[in-house]
Every structure is written in structure tokens, then in C-alpha cells.
Design a protein that fits this description.
Keywords: Signal. InterPro entries: LVIVD (IPR013211). Residues 1-19 form the signal peptide. This is LVIVD repeat-containing protein. It holds the Pfam family LVIVD. It is a single chain. By secondary structure, this protein is mainly beta. The chain has a single domain (29-421), classed as Methylamine Dehydrogenase, Chain H (7 Propeller), CATH 2.130.10. 7% of the residues lie in helices and 47% in strands. A six-stranded antiparallel sheet has the order 2-6-5-4-3-13, with no helix packed on it. Strands 14, 15, 16, 17 and 18 form a five-stranded antiparallel sheet that branches. The longest helix has 12 residues, at 2-13. The radius of gyration is 23 Å and the shape is globular.
Length: 422
């Protein structure tokens, strides 16, 4: 009888033991994308409607007397900001799969599930769709999938997706038994490719808007630069009605943001900051890189210093959060000077001697950087969610937690002038 019981216990345990060559197994939450036909989906993906409440506030963009606020993955809200103390929500541009925009001379460029979409906003009360360049950007599936909220999962099984036919609209999550090696491989980057490559300032007569430090779009002169997950996409927009897609430049794995100082591009990624020369704007040339631990990484530059916020935790990585001040006086040899601890920083911005840092749930922080790389904190606005910031000539814009805040500059501080709940 005892032998029979022992045999039954051994048989019952067999499903939980594996002798396969790929090693031990564990139970993991596995997420797979839910797909929808791209043609029918995109046909209904664009519309211009009356103002609606925001669902998930994302990045901000300023152009003339207007503020454009991204509703993550859904489009963007148009805010009339002629009176900063009393902004008015006037329209919502529905654009499925949208995360970023950039504007030049009343032509608005936006992403939509890998397409580059162009609007004419010369009449803000009668915005018109001008054209759509199919599959022009975000060819790497990871950026497309970021247009919908990531579920909590251990393994993301993307499979093979034909993005000419399908878009990702959601996720299905199931508990599955998978090799431990498959789970661990997600956090390895031994096979990631980092290619090196061994020349444009905005003209005064052009009207170009201003984005925050989290932007993936950047207009410099007659060129639009867009970063996807690994590449720098380049468009000649000298003819705003019919842009021309040029050859992409492979940068690195996991790039996120783009910023320029004159003829130099600074590209932020989870592995580091990458510097490119755009003297030939159609063919950016690699200059150098500054590597750091894995973290979300926007960057802004002023003079001889780059200011990089690293946010650790969640999907950003395991690097401790902080502000890195990097000496770039020698562009070929960026040199880390000092690290300032931060809570969970997102976007940041510069206005003359002031440095503004959105430190997540720890609020907005104002620093004096006149003695860089040494900086001194001037003020701290706690108890607010701070996501991204744009320093304009007369006012500071800050978005976070579904709220747009505007501040006026003081000699050694800033002062709140309006709060706009979205």
C-alpha cells in the first residue's frame, strides 16, 4: 500500500519536473499582443472633435499661443493659451496610436501607429488633415506596442507581427510554464547592436514649436528627426506639404528622447546618451556616447554641460534615480562630473541659470545652475505629480497627473499663475 501511494506521488510530481535541454521551468505571467486589422482601424483613427476630458496625460508641446497635450495613445488636446492665467480647452484631435508631435509653419507632424501624419493648423478652428505617410516611422515593434498600456507580466511574447496588416490594441495575459532561461534572456543585452558612424539651426523666419525633454520628435531647420526604439528616422521637410523620408541611422538599443544644441543632437536612451553631428543634416554622424546603467533617460543641454535624469524602477531598469551632470566641452569625451540623488525624475528643462526637474510624485524642483556642475536647489513644489516641463520665454509649462500648471519667472524663483485640470 505504501509503495502504491509513493508511486502515485511520484507520478503526480512529474508535470512539475522537466529534464529538457533548455533547463528548469517556472510559472510565468505571459503577455501577448491583441491585434486588429490596420486598414479598418486606421480608417477610423483620425477625427477632430470638441474638447473631451483627458484620460492619460502625456507630453506637452507649445506653439505660438497654443499648447498641445498628448492623451497617451489617443491623440492630443488643443489648449488656447493666449491668457496663461485662464487657458481654454478648444478641441481634441483624435489620433489613435499617437505619442508625439512637432510643428513648423502651421504644419503639425504626428505619429500614429508607425505612420507620419501631417495636419494644417493655420486655422486653429478648422484643422485639416494634409497627408499620411504609411509606415514611415517606428518600424520597431516595441515602440508601437508602447502606444497601449503595458500589463503586468513576466514575459512579453511579441511573436511575429506584420505591421503592414495589423496594429496592437491591447494585451492578453495568461499564466504559462516557460524555461527560466527565456525569462532571464529578456534582461540580457549581449547581442544588442550599438553601431558607430566614422552636418542646421532653426531659421529665424520659420515658426517652430517647442517640446519638452521627453520628446521623440525634433525639428531642426528643414529636417524632422524622430527616434524610435533603436533608429533615428530622418525626414526632409523643406516642402512641408510632401516630406521626404531619408535613410535611417541605427543608434542603439532602447533609445527614448532627442534634444539638439545647434548642429549637435543628443539622444537619450536607457543605456546611455548618444551624440551626433548634423552638419550634414541628412546624414548624422556619430560623435561619442556616454554610457550609464539601465534607466529611463531624458537629456537637455546648455553650453558645456548636459543634464541627464535617470529614473530607475518599474520597466526603466535597476539604476538608482538621479541627476547626472556631464561635461561635454569635449564632445568626443563626455565626462560625468557629479550625480545628484532624485526620487523618480521624468522631464527637465533649462531657462538661463535655472534648471527645472520634474521629480515624479516628489514634485517640481528648481535649481540654480550658474555654477555648474555644482547646482543649488532654490525651491521645491511637493505634493504634485510632475511629468514634463517646457520653459518658455515668459512662462514655465508643467504637466503631471492630468493637470497643466503655469508659472511665471521670478529673480530667484518661480510663482504659480494658473492650474488647469484636464
Amino acid at each position: 500500500m505504501k509503495k502504491s501511494i509513493l508511486l502515485l506521488l511520484l507520478l503526480a510530481a512529474l508535470p512539475f519536473v522537466s529534464c529538457d535541454d533548455d533547463g528548469p521551468y517556472e510559472d510565468y505571467l505571459v503577455a501577448r499582443p491583441i491585434l486588429e486589422d490596420a486598414i479598418s482601424f486606421k480608417a477610423e483613427a483620425i477625427d477632430i472633435i470638441d474638447p473631451i476630458p483627458i484620460q492619460t496625460s502625456g507630453k506637452i508641446y507649445a506653439y505660438k499661443n497654443y499648447i498641445f497635450i498628448n492623451d497617451v495613445g489617443s491623440g492630443f488636446h488643443v489648449i488656447d493659451n493666449q491668457n496663461p492665467s485662464n487657458p481654454q480647452n478648444i478641441a481634441f484631435i483624435k489620433l489613435e496610436g499617437n505619442n508625439d508631435i512637432s510643428i513648423k509653419d502651421d504644419k503639425l507632424f504626428a505619429d500614429s501607429y508607425g505612420d507620419l501624419v501631417i495636419f494644417d493648423i493655420s486655422d486653429i478652428n478648422n484643422i485639416q488633415l494634409t497627408s499620411r505617410m504609411v509606415n514611415a516611422i517606428y518600424k520597431n515593434y516595441d515602440v508601437w506596442i508602447q502606444n497601449v498600456e503595458f500589463p503586468q507580466a513576466d514575459i512579453y511574447d511579441y511573436g511575429t507581427i506584420d505591421y503592414d496588416r495589423y496594429v496592437v490594441v491591447g494585451w492578453e495575459v495568461k499564466m504559462e510554464r516557460r524555461p527560466v532561461s527565456e525569462y532571464e534572456e529578456q534582461f540580457r543585452c549581449d547581442n544588442c547592436e550599438f553601431r558607430n558612424f566614422d552636418n542646421v539651426v532653426n531659421t529665424a523666419e520659420s515658426d517652430v514649436g517647442q517640446g519638452g525633454s521627453l520628446a521623440r520628435f525634433k525639428i531642426v531647420g528643414d529636417y524632422l528627426y524622430v527616434v524610435d526604439y533603436s533608429d533615428l528616422n530622418i525626414f526632409d521637410i523643406s516642402n512641408l506639404e510632401t516630406p521626404t523620408a531619408l535613410e535611417d541611422v541605427s543608434v542603439a538599443w532602447d533609445i527614448e528622447t532627442i534634444f539638439n544644441q545647434g548642429e549637435i543632437l543628443f539622444i537619450g536612451g536607457r543605456q546611455g546618451m548618444y551624440i551626433y553631428d548634423i552638419k550634414d543634416p541628412a546624414k548624422p554622424e556619430f560623435v561619442s556616447e556616454f554610457r550609464h546603467g539601465t534607466a529611463c533617460d531624458p537629456v537637455v543641454v546648455d553650453g558645456n554641460f548636459a543634464y541627464v535624469t535617470l529614473k530607475g524602477g518599474d520597466f526603466c531598469g535597476n539604476t538608482e534615480s538621479g541627476l547626472y551632470v556631464v561635461d561635454i566641452s569635449d564632445l568626443k569625451n563626455p565626462d560625468l562630473k557629479v550625480i545628484y540623488p532624485m526620487f523618480g525624475p521624468n522631464g527637465l528643462g533649462i531657462k538661463r541659470d535655472k534648471l527645472f526637474i520634474c521629480d515624479g510624485s516628489d514634485g517640481l524642483k528648481v535649481f540654480d545652475k550658474s555654477n555648474a556642475p555644482n547646482i543649488t536647489q532654490l525651491n521645491h513644489f511637493p505634493d504634485i505629480e510632475a511629468y514634463d516641463v517646457i520653459p518658455l520665454e515668459n512662462t514655465l509649462l508643467m504637466i503631471g497627473g492630468g493637470t497643466l500648471r503655469q508659472y511665471e519667472y521670478l529673480e530667484n524663483d518661480i510663482q504659480l499663475i494658473s492650474t488647469f485640470e484636464l
